[in-house]
């Protein structure tokens, strides 16, 4: 989820410049967590998997690494996992494309921008928003701003993390009131730079996700557009590298990884305080902002549906029509489900 002057070549530059923070190996088994006996695949069933280490992309501190330690969800896994953290989605997609990570989740736009430059990855699962009235990202303005509606953005500066889901929200939001990107000055800034510009009055509005949105609102900012249908999807997507997907044995093991991640987040949302603590620990945000993040976006991990593909295709078409992509994207062509169509994590062991 990130910044603008991109149009193909700019995106590539930002992707290759991304820094991946080092992380620990799979969760510590010294104390059993609530999911330490989760009935995933076993070493007995797949002894060859003991040679595998999967790198999981963490998009901006989603709590997954800390939750893995707390829950022990990978304790009995017949492979190792490690985590790599990214500030937002496009660099994560680049890492999946090159095989630097095996699996990670991103917002709605990074898979589209990645596919437009023919990177080697696929969309393999969806974080389906469980409440269509709750938004994980918003367009916000300062508390004393004269801007009251999206129409008031005409001629104003709107900070956006380019190539991110917040970029998609901004594009479709202004389109919904008859404006174009030429009517609004999109200022492409990464999340940290966007926060500074918004706080210092260098921009008039900001399209951004939580916890940044929640923090700004806590400090007095106002929401003028929520990231909800019809101008935004209440979904995120998991992407995986073709290098793992195209190897039958690694693919099967990666499906087990994704099943465990699904179980981890199912547990986290049933234990929201622990979830918030994990996010706060990973990101350094106050616990109240982490709680707001958890509350804002309830979800369940599941397979990519035909409705998901249609929604992504509509977004891809909107980006292409706006001149934001160098080529059109066939979303179905970059989709490769790792989970069965009838997958239901609540029925897993």
From TrEMBL:
The record, for InterPro entries, names: ABC_SsuA_sub-bd, Solute-binding_3/MltF_N
What keywords are annotated for this sequence in UniProt? Signal, Transport
The signal peptide annotation in the UniProt record is none
Organism domain of life: Bacteria
> One MF term from GO for this chain?
ATPase-coupled transmembrane transporter activity
Family named by the database record: Belongs to the bacterial solute-binding protein SsuA/TauA family.
Role, per record: Part of a binding-protein-dependent transport system for aliphatic sulfonates. Putative binding protein.
- What is the name listed in the Swiss-Prot or TrEMBL entry for this protein? Putative aliphatic sulfonates-binding protein
Q: Which organism is it from?
A: Mycolicibacterium confluentis
